[in-house]
């Protein structure tokens, strides 16, 4: 090292091998997403092999009995998932019922709710036709999920009520189970609305970005003024129905609200017991998007929130931070991913004009166009999209140990922003693996509910 030169910075989770990753004494096999606890000496030997290159790693894994032939076989379902590029039947649908919003969040992925087009609401006949196609394609005894999205979906309250009743009636005729969800800013909800959502067992996600000061900075009302107090005033009826609906909060993380432990504490104080955070990587205006300098701070804040969660769970106390709980559950199940989510594979969105999109973020975006209601979902477009987006087709993912955990990242974010957050993602997953080992040692019973 030259005199005065800064020492190299070791980034948490930096790839050392495409075949495997070590977090402490826990070994992740990259392709199968299987975890193994190694004795200290074996972990040290594998770590040393990683410094010598892939051939040394292959030999060391073979000595541990972890050659490709000896690795745990994937289940038939997982093998199909990782080998079949064709999309399956659509089982989940997001109805963009309101392409408009009563708020003015600067970072909004929907560009103010209208997705860059005219403000409008979905006509009832479009909603019914989309629901009919979804349910008719489901086998008797099967299940479908319907999400109501925007903009702010509750601006189309009457349409939502009509759509739910219509879906219930059509599904009952085919013995198909229906589940409903909504992402809302909650500023328009009334007690009778909460009762309706509870009656139909909705999963309700409320968007909030922190305490009053942070939220009002990032999520102002369209006419000016903050939104925090308005949301807080509407939460009571939802919380009263907590035994009949699933209520959670969703936080969009920008450079202006990176204190995640503080955010989780503030939203817990409002009554939420499930709080998920999502980094803002791609913003239509550029406002609120995280930059390279923000990701180390984001990882530090996420780990701090994770440590709060671990401490509480090990002590037998509840804690609302959902990101670590979700990551630990996925690690425990050990299901390797070929894509990051169900978008296009079995989930699509429909906009107000009856056009299908890859997901709710691709509304009015030609990169995610997937046909329309007149002809049904475009099978060729879906197959081509998935073939291009699968992790096996992503050159930047081939050498990454985390590829089967993240599945290559959010399609919308990667297509619009590239992969600025890979170091952060690997760092978070490395932490999650270490947290998994600690929780397994202290509270293995927790995984019975994961």
Automatic annotation (TrEMBL):
<dbReference type="GO" id="GO:0051536">
    <property type="term" value="F:iron-sulfur cluster binding"/>
</dbReference>
<dbReference type="GO" id="GO:0046872">
    <property type="term" value="F:metal ion binding"/>
</dbReference>
<keyword id="KW-0949">S-adenosyl-L-methionine</keyword>
<dbReference type="InterPro" id="IPR013785">
    <property type="entry name" value="Aldolase_TIM"/>
</dbReference>
<dbReference type="InterPro" id="IPR007197">
    <property type="entry name" value="rSAM"/>
</dbReference>
<dbReference type="InterPro" id="IPR023885">
    <property type="entry name" value="4Fe4S-binding_SPASM_dom"/>
</dbReference>
<feature type="domain" description="Radical SAM core">
    <location>
        <begin position="85"/>
        <end position="322"/>
    </location>
</feature>
<dbReference type="InterPro" id="IPR023867">
    <property type="entry name" value="Sulphatase_maturase_rSAM"/>
</dbReference>
<dbReference type="Pfam" id="PF04055">
    <property type="entry name" value="Radical_SAM"/>
</dbReference>
<keyword id="KW-0411">Iron-sulfur</keyword>
<dbReference type="InterPro" id="IPR058240">
    <property type="entry name" value="rSAM_sf"/>
</dbReference>
<dbReference type="GO" id="GO:0016491">
    <property type="term" value="F:oxidoreductase activity"/>
</dbReference>
<protein>
    <submittedName>
        <fullName>Radical SAM protein</fullName>
    </submittedName>
</protein>
<keyword id="KW-0408">Iron</keyword>
<keyword id="KW-0479">Metal-binding</keyword>
């Amino acid at each position: 090292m030259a005199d005065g030169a800064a020492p190299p910075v070791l980034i948490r989770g930096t790839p050392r091998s495409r075949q495997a990753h070590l977090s402490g004494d826990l070994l992740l096999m990259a392709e199968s997403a299987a975890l193994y606890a190694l004795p200290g000496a074996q972990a040290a030997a594998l770590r040393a092999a990683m410094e010598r290159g892939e051939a040394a790693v292959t030999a060391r894994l073979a000595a541990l009995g972890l050659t490709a032939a000896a690795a745990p076989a994937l289940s038939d379902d997982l093998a199909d998932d990782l080998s079949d590029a064709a999309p399956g039947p659509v089982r989940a649908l997001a109805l963009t019922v309101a392409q408009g919003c009563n708020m003015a969040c600067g970072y909004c992925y929907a560009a103010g709710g209208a997705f860059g087009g005219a403000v409008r609401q979905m006509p009832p006949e479009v909603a019914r036709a989309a629901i009919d196609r979804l349910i008719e394609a489901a086998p008797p005894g099967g299940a479908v999920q319907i999400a109501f999205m925007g903009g702010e979906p509750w601006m189309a309250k009457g349409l939502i009520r009509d759509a739910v009743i219509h879906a219930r009636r059509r599904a009952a005729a085919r013995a198909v189970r229906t589940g409903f969800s909504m992402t809302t800013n909650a500023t328009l909800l009334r007690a009778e609305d909460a009762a309706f959502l509870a009656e139909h067992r909705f999963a309700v996600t409320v968007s909030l970005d922190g305490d009053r000061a942070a939220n009002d900075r990032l999520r102002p009302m369209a006419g000016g003024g903050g939104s925090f107090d308005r949301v807080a005033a509407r939460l009571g009826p939802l919380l009263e129905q907590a035994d009949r609906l699933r209520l959670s909060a969703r936080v969009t993380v920008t450079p202006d609200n990176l204190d995640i432990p503080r955010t989780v504490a503030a939203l817990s104080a409002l009554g939420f017991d499930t709080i998920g955070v999502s980094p803002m990587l791609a913003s239509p205006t550029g406002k609120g998007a995280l930059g390279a300098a923000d990701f180390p701070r984001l990882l530090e804040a996420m780990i701090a929130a994770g440590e709060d969660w671990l401490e509480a769970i090990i002590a037998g106390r509840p804690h609302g931070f959902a990101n670590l709980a979700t990551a630990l559950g996925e690690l425990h199940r050990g299901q390797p991913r070929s894509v990051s989510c169900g978008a296009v594979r079995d989930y699509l969105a429909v906009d107000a004009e009856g056009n299908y999109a890859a997901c709710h973020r691709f509304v009015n975006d030609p990169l995610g166009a997937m046909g329309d209601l007149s002809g049904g979902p475009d099978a060729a477009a879906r197959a081509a999209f998935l073939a291009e987006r699968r992790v096996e087709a992503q050159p930047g993912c081939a050498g990454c140990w985390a590829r089967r955990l993240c599945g290559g990242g959010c399609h919308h974010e990667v297509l619009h922003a590239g992969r600025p957050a890979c170091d952060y993602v690997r760092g978070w997953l490395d932490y999650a693996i270490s947290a998994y080992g600690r929780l397994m040692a202290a509270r293995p019973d927790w995984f019975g509910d994961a």
